[in-house]
Amino acid sequence: MPRAIEAPCPREPPVADPSPSRGPQPDELLVATLNLRNIADRWSERIPLLLADMAALQPDLIGLQECVFAVQQDRLLGAAAAGRYESRRGWAGRPEYGNAVLGKTPLALGEGQRLELDHNRSALRVPVSLPSGATLDFVVTHLHHLVADEAVREAQARALASWLADIEGALVVVGDFNAEPTEPTYRVMLDARFRSAHAEANGAEPAATWPSGIKAPGMDEDGEPGCLDYIWVRGPITVEACHLAFGRPAVDDPTLYPSDHLGLSARLNIDG
User: What's the gap between Cα 46 and its chain centre?
Assistant: First the structure.
């Protein structure tokens, strides 16, 4: 006998997702800054400490100051662990030395733009494409160091703020400003609508980012301990946290640190 063919069962209508629709999610980034102190102050001994801290931190973006390109200091740090980094460089005073930006995949770094500042200083601005499709401008600088020359640093900060004035989107500026929060340089950044990540996250700046505690022949001892290094943000950025970084001494030598400065790291949400 012929087999009866069963009629297909009616399909259940799809169940609607009860959760509300979610808009674009912000990009979460870990950014950092560090003055490398070039190849002075026991450089060969400092290398393992720098590599260990960079491997542990693995920031998405880091701005480096006093970076010696001739010995590939930026690329050395970028190879510290599994993260794949690319570098952009901006010389200061001489072609083999200056500021650098490291960006970790999947971030895409555009071509850097350099701002010449006086007294052999400069700033480097790098456009960054984020995984969401949003963009961010990341800037690193290193201002004049002589303690008494507050007016020089103030003028450099004003030049920097003017250079960045037309940026309406997310903007991060990091570096060694060589200026404490009581100096006019700090006020210049606030007046340019920048917010300090550490102050926003913790209610105050750290007591000191220099000196770190390192002891070395010929080390810089000009000035009292103070907060000289900053992560500044402007635009649609939420600061989730900000802490000191690169501050662990050698296990067997309490006078050996990664640099003569402490670094900073901040976890940011970029809201597009």
Answer: 20
